[in-house]
Amino acid sequence: MGRNTVLAAVCAVAVASIYAAQPALAGIGADLDVPAADLGWIVAAGQLGYLAGLALLVPLGDLRDRRRLIAGHLALTAAGAVVAAAATRLWVLLAGLAVAGLFAVVVQTTVAYAAASAAPGERGRTLGTVTSGVVLGILGARVAAGALATVWGWRSVYVVLAVLLVTLAGVVLRTLPPDPRPGRSSYRDALAGLGRLFRERLFVSRGVIAFFLFASFGTLWSGLTLPLSAAPWRLSAAQIGLFGLAGLVGALGAARAGRWADAGFARPVTLGALALLAVSWAAIGQAPWSLTLLAIGVVALDFAVQAVHVGNQHLLTTAHPGTTSSAIGGYMLFYSLGSALGATATTTAFAVAGWAGSSVLGAVFALCALAAALTGRGRPARRCRSAPGRPGRSRRSARRTTGGRAGSS
Predict the structure, then answer these.
(1) CB count, 10 Å around CB of 40?
(2) Using CB atoms within 10 A as the burial measure, which of 102, 317, 330, 407 is most buried?
(3) By the 8 A CB rule, do 235 and 146 touch?
């Protein structure tokens, strides 16, 4: 198994531990006697743990051997999954899911490891491959967890996840090379470095793009059940889950975006993909009348989201080669907040104006991301990679050396 395949598998299984509860909520509620109004906390527990891990755990990757961190965090995520599988009360389940979410930020440590270990000219392609595992985990978890819960019950979902997580921890230790980190004075310094990123134009620009990008993504995937389970379709949960496969086709197709970023085309790819994202909502909005148009729109949306996401991470890890973990962790804070906004706003929009309201909302988020991309240029990143000892080198020469990526946004 190749290095990138291992890293992609780590991302897929770890992120699945956060999203696996969604298709099994009805079974969990019936088994633990949880009122329907409280089922949302089951999903929120993992998300809140994940948000805390982004700020508190991901910066450790700039201080410690990332290979050992990946293996250790996979094992601790498995421990949370075991607690969830054995839970007989709601608070125990929530505690297990929170722990699993907290250490599921191993995804970001893995992405940082991949970026740091890749050759400069292959960083984008590597990121495209590895982050495809994230999309596989997000979309595939809905299908796989739904099938497992139907056949063996919801607890089987977390048992299988725990086995996969422990197995991957062993594979990581056996197959990946060590990743010694340069000495830094303290964990406190790492957190301070994360805070300083929020004063950098490139970082904030890409973060704002990600915020609106994943708000649009969350608007679709958190709200799609509403029109499909209603008249005239009245689809089952399993049938609705199949649309995740359509999204997977689009997202995996965008892995090539990494190669485009390697070639220096991050900015035009970002702008084109965000325009496609906005247009995709015209097809997605037809969900109450045409499942074919909906499927086309889902493919386009997930292609656009993944293309922009890969480009964002490529630029940030290239601009911050010594602190890739902090850069990725901070960037993903925008991702999480945007996803949460989309998930909560889409249900409100649907209640007020139906799926047309949700579709307009998703398109507005996409246009906001496009506006952020048009106004943010991120010039400070270009200065970060000027070669020391060659102050007279021209800006054009610097661009040739780095493939023109530094100033792209």
Answers:
(1) 12
(2) 330
(3) no
